[in-house]
């Protein structure tokens, strides 16, 4: 992975219900092949999701073909992605500060050790 990749970090909450959290994690151990294919096709080179409690944190590394607008268009026109998103929303809940209709929220970077290295 070269320096041409851009990194985005996003956050989302799960419903604070242990059974729903466990089910969400199980789904992500067996993500549908069509979902992985759609992620790759959008220009995402690496995608990782971490969790603590009911908080999710996602790191995306994307190439120059990626934009959130292009991904939204691709997703809107992919019935399997829409099916997955509907299923996942049963487990997810928007962050308190997120705009209406928004799931994952972009996070602002506030620290980077590499910026101190000269």
Notes on the structure:
With 118 residues, this protein is an alpha+beta fold. It has one domain: Dimeric alpha+beta barrel (Alpha-Beta Plaits, 2-Layer Sandwich), CATH 3.30.70.1090. Helix content is 35%, strand content 25%. The protein contains 4 helices and 5 strands. It has helices at 18-29, 33-41, 68-76, 79-89; strands at residues 6-14, 44-52, 55-62, 92-93, 105-106. Strands 1, 2, 3, 4 and 5 form a 5-stranded antiparallel sheet that branches. Strand 2 and strand 3 (55-62) form a beta hairpin.
Name the features.
five-stranded antiparallel sheet; Alpha-Beta Plaits; 118 residues; alpha+beta; 4 helices
Task: Please name the CATH topology.
Answer: Alpha-Beta Plaits
Q: SSE order in H/E notation?
A: EHHEEHHEE
- Could you give me the name of the CATH homologous superfamily? Dimeric alpha+beta barrel
Structural class of the secondary structure composition?
Answer: alpha+beta
Question: Nearest-angstrom radius of gyration?
Answer: 15 Å
Q: List the uncertain runs.
A: none
Q: Quick check: average pLDDT?
A: 94
Total number of domains: 1
Query: What top-tier CATH class fits best?
Result: Alpha Beta
Strand segment tally: 5
CATH-level-2 architecture: 2-Layer Sandwich
Approximate strand percentage: 25-35%
Largest sheet: 5 strands, antiparallel
- Structure annotation, total helices: 4
Distance from N terminus to C terminus (CA atoms, Å) equals 22 Å
Classify the helix fraction into a percent range: 25-40%
Choose one word for the global shape: globular
């Amino acid at each position: 992975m070269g320096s041409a990749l851009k990194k985005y970090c996003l956050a989302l909450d799960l419903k604070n219900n242990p059974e729903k959290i466990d089910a969400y994690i199980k789904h992500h151990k067996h993500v549908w092949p069509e979902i992985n294919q759609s992620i790759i096709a959008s220009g995402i080179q690496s995608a990782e999701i971490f969790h603590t409690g009911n908080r999710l944190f996602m790191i995306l590394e994307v190439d120059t073909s990626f934009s959130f607008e292009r991904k939204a268009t691709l997703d809107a026109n992919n019935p399997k992605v829409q099916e997955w998103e509907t299923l996942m929303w049963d487990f997810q809940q928007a962050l308190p500060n997120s705009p209406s209709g928004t799931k994952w929220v972009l996070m602002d970077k506030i620290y980077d050790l590499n910026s101190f290295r000269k």
